[in-house]
Amino acid sequence: MRAITLLACLLLAGCGPRDSTSYFPLQPGAHWTYAVETESDGATSRGQQTIRVLDERVYDGKPLFIRRSETPDNIGVEYWLRERPDGIVRIAQRLDLQEQASLDEAPRMVLKLPLKIGDSWRTPTVAYTVLRKNEYPREIKYGRPLQMTYTVEALDEKLTVAAGSFEHCARVAGHAEMTLFTDPVRGFNKVPVITTEWYCRGVGLVKLERVERLGTTFYSGGRVAMELVEYKPR
Fold first, then answer.
1. Cα 164-19-67 angle, rounded to 5 deg
2. Which of 48, 67, 37 is nearest to 204 (CA)?
3. DSSP element (H, E) containing 96
4. Each residue's pLDDT tens digit, 44-76
5. What residues are paired with 35 via a beta bridge?
6. Which of 95, 140, 178, 195 has its CA 20 to 30 A from that of 223?
């Protein structure tokens, strides 16, 4: 990957008038707060995650939106997002410990637009909760990217979360597989990684569930759930 000087970073918007019915609003100043529940290695933890659209910039002659995701202990990551005719893509990211952002080898589709039932796309991801039991680092996400296929399954669902009740919500399902040597008896196996995301018009991501069920001699798995608690458009 090429390193580039940081301009800003993590979720985006587009140029021109902002669409209040967008499934992925990117107005600078927009702010989302999520309750996060994580099950991993037999333990459950609860926390909070915030996402903010920091700014809109021009990079390489094109609009770029900076979105930042962080936890209460100020551990965060910034993403460079761009709005294209075919959807929202990520072109770079920067971790807090990095002085410079790193360009993705190719733009990564975040959400294909306009949403149509049956449409699908592939995007790299990593396992969130799968851990090695007897090796370090325990997290397998380092050095083991996965290709997840996302498919739009519904466009007009109703959803109630802590932030309120929402209509006209799209449900997007993601599926990937990890090939792991799970134990000496079963040998190598394909382990499913399942994600379900709900995007509501004018709000964006309202709910997410990621399931990585695995319990073998060498590995443990878990799940992650995010639910919107508060949304401020700007």
1. 75
2. 67
3. none
4. 999 999 999 999 999 999 999 999 999 888 789
5. 48, 227
6. 95
> Among 51, 55, 58, which residue's Cα sits nearest to residue 9?
55
- The answer to whether the CB of 87 falls within 8 A of the CB of 113 is yes
Tell me the pTM. 0.86
Pairing between β-strand 31-40 and β-strand 219-232 as defined by DSSP bridges:
antiparallel
For the chain, the domains span: 3-232
Residue 172's Cα: distance from chain center in Å? 12
What CA–CA distance (Å, rounded) separates 232 from 149? 30
**CATH fit for domain 3-232, picks 2.60.40, 2.40.360, 2.30.31, 3.30.310:** 2.40.360
- Summarised one tens digit per residue, pLDDT across range 72-93 is 887 899 999 999 999 999 999 9
